[in-house]
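dumping this here before i forget
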Amino acid sequence: MPSSYPLSTEMARFVAQTCSFAVESPETSAQRAAYSRMCQAFTPARPTGLEVEDFTLSNVPVRLYRPNGLSSDYCAPCVIYLHGGGWVVGDLDSHDFLTASLAVDLNAVVIAVDYRLAPEVAFPAAFDDCLAVWRGVQHQARWLCVDSQRVVIAGDSAGGNLTAAVCLALRDAGEGQPVGQALIYPALGGADDLPSRSECHDAPLLTREDIHVYQRLYLPDPEDAVSPYAMPLTARHFRGLAPAFIAVAQFDPLRDDGHEYERVLSEAGVATQLHLGHGLIHGYLRAKGRVPEVDCLYARMVQALLGFFAGKPPDAL
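structure:
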């Protein structure tokens, strides 16, 4: 690990354990297998008191988590969660550690989305799937026993990218916004000359070169990189978007994507809250329960989501 990234003992231990699953092969299949092994090692048993069901919604595989305490005739608040993984790795199991916990801690329905991955299918497949699930939740809210007026969309890394893209697409189509959007260390298409790209170019768990590799796989056609649904920071304006909770990591080449997104939203009159992630690295959510500074972030994320459900916009920090 480079000495320029002063991490806590707990965070350094998490990084070392994560890196122990790395493989040399650049083949997508090998990378996915290694990622799955790593995810499994960090996934605890699910909390008790949850009903979990896998099915398809709008022709997209999803996993629905419902706390047992929610009666079947109660229209519950809902989080649509979009996993990270560079649009290349990840699935319903990779983020089960988080989506199951959110359902319990929010006492809400959580719907995780298993969108299609690159390079087998490049942009806009993942974006199309996430947008389709959002619309499916709206159209089938009664069947899902969720309140269509209290739905949040959230995601980490590539999932944060897709979260922002769905909000932009809904706005552009004249459709209603989520009551909130939550983006955790999002990849939003920030410029290569942003300070974090050079300051954190070799950061643990995600380097600047890693970003370029993932983007080439997701966006093999360079013309797609100018689409706001591929890279949300290229949008012409940011008015009319959902209130946002944005969390970044201090030691992450993507850090300034989140800073830039918070800035343009605020300038457009969108309520925002920014968590700076001091001492954190990309992918830190998986250290929940192991690293105190991650637990602090998770608690703030839960608080922000509960606020969205209650119709309370986040306070700008």
